[in-house]
Specification:
10 helices; Multidrug-efflux Transporter Regulator, Chain: A, Domain 2; 2 strands; two-stranded antiparallel ribbon; mainly alpha; globular; single chain
């Protein structure tokens, strides 16, 4: 019997587990649903991962883990690479600094799944929830964390490397709540017009405001850090 030239999704999971301990079958399926990978299917509907599919998946996981790139930018980078436009990688990286990170859509993960997917223990996730950094959704019998929570936790876990605790991160929650209220007041008049064009304009305005806010915070933080370094060096 001829050897198979492809791998099943379970075999792919095993082959990637050493480099990406938090990889799960659900995450692989999610990336497929978002159009990042497109494995072939057998007549029975089972996924067939060839070497190229596995390498593509590995690159996607590395960009998520090492560079925190949003899926939109990862997809654009892959398209550039497939089109032989390697020189576009650097501009795409600069663009990622300004783009809003897009959380996974349609994701519903239990506490155990969140812990497995991110490598953060259950108790720490529950502590983050108590401080309002994460928020479970759904009815009591079907509680889950969504894509926003997954994205927040994926970023927050790196703060823990510096000895920070969930209570230290509440300033980000307070600031985001105040900022959201400010932006809401700006776009409410457009939303009240109750027509598709006004709603689209409101969403575009929110995206632009968020982008400007991020750039302003980066610039002001850089200024303050520079002053601190200068003071320490004098």
């Amino acid at each position: 019997m001829a050897a198979r030239s492809y791998m099943s999704i379970g075999e792919v999971l095993i082959s990637l587990k050493t480099e990406f301990p938090d990889i799960t079958i659900s995450k692989i399926r999610f990336l497929e649903g978002e159009g990042l990978i497109e494995p072939e299917r057998t007549a029975s509907g089972y996924r067939k991962f060839y070497d190229g599919d596995v390498e593509r998946l590995r690159n996607i996981l590395r960009m998520q883990r090492d560079e925190y790139l949003p899926l939109k930018v990862i997809k654009e980078r892959l398209l550039h690479a497939e089109g032989g436009e390697a020189e576009a990688a650097e501009p795409a990286e600069r663009e990622a600094e300004d783009d809003l990170a897009e959380p996974p859509t349609g994701l519903q993960m239990s506490l155990d799944e969140m812990s497995s997917a991110t490598g953060v223990d259950r108790e720490r996730i529950q502590e983050l929830e108590r401080f309002g950094i994460l928020c479970e959704h759904g009815a009591d019998g079907n509680r889950y964390f969504d894509g926003d929570d997954y994205q927040v936790l994926s970023i927050v876990k790196d703060f823990f490397k510096y000895g920070m605790e969930p209570r230290h991160l509440t300033m980000y929650r307070h600031f985001s709540e105040r900022e959201a209220s400010l932006f809401e007041a700006i776009v409410v008049p457009m939303i009240r017009q109750r027509n598709p064009e006004a709603r689209r304009a409101a969403m575009d305005s929110l995206s632009d405001l968020a982008r400007l806010s991020r750039k302003l915070k980066q610039a002001m933080l850089r200024t303050n850090l520079r002053q601190y370094i200068q003071q320490q060096g004098s």
